[in-house]
Amino acid sequence: MDNQVPFSDLKKAYLQAAQIVTSHGEKYTPIFERLEMEYKERVHQIDAVNRARQLLESELL
Questions:
Q1: Residue 19 and residue 16: Cα distance in Å, rounded?
Q2: DSSP 49
Q3: Would you say 21 and 36 are in contact if contact means Cβ atoms under 8 Å apart?
Q4: Residues 6+ apart with CB under 8 A from 5
Q5: pTM of the predicted model, to two decimals?
Q6: Within its chain, how far is the Cα of 48 from the centroid?
Q7: Cβ atoms within 10 A of the Cβ of 32, count?
Q8: In contact, 53 and 41? CB cutoff 8 Å
Q9: pLDDT in tens, 12-48
Q10: If we measure between CA atoms, which residue out of 25, 1, 28 comes closest to residue 13?
Q11: Are 14 and 36 spatial neighbours (Cβ–Cβ below 8 Å)?
Q12: Helix/strand/coil (H, E, C) string of the chain?
């Protein structure tokens, strides 16, 4: 069972955290940094899956 938060929800939370930090100050940066880390890891994961698909497709041609 996949318990990952949907990417669109993660991106929305990341953007909201950025807004909170800029509006309310640096005491909220730990939340922003955690979401930033999660977001970047997910983007990297998605990129890796896409690269794997491209590799297989190029080998099948």
A1: 5
A2: H
A3: no
A4: 13
A5: 0.82
A6: 13
A7: 19
A8: no
A9: 999 999 999 999 999 999 999 999 999 999 999 999 9
A10: 28
A11: yes
A12: CCCCCCHHHHHHHHHHHHHHHHHHCHHHHHHHHHHHHHHHHHHHHHHHHHHHHHHHHHHHC
Q: What is the pLDDT of residue 59?
A: 87
**In this structure, which amino acid lies at residue 57?**
E
Angle at 36 between CA 41 and CA 40, to 5 degrees: 25
The length of the chain is 61
Kindly state the tokens that stand for 2. Answer: 């996949």
Structure tokens at 52: 């794997």
Is pLDDT above 60 for 1? no
CA dihedral angle for residue 40, residue 46, residue 49, residue 55, rounded to 10 degrees:
-90
How far, in whole angstroms, is CA 9 from its chain's centroid?
Answer: 9
